[in-house]
Amino acid sequence: MNAMQTIAERVTKQRTARGFSQRALSEKLGISRTTLSSIERGEDGVTMGTLLKVMDFLDMTLESKKVVRLPKDGQFPRGGPTLMQIRAMREQGLL
């Protein structure tokens, strides 16, 4: 299972545990129901901002037992930071 599939399952679980339908949660967050559905299916194409908005509302964190390393030169390989690196940067006040 890849990271997006894991996040997708966690979003669905947290949403249902809090008693929200996809429609109710999407309206609360100001996003479309199809966008929320895409997140819950683990599809590509969802913006990082939207994904973090949903996760923040559901009090979800990106936890890992691994140490998240940020590149010293600030250059991320293959187009950008991972979700865990973004979270680490937010925690360090870099974002």
UniProtKB/TrEMBL annotation:
The keyword Transcription applies. Transmembrane segments: none annotated. Residues 11-65 form the HTH cro/C1-type domain. The keyword DNA-binding applies. CDD domains: HTH_XRE (cd00093). Pfam families: HTH_3. Keywords: DNA-binding, Transcription, Transcription regulation. This is Helix-turn-helix transcriptional regulator.
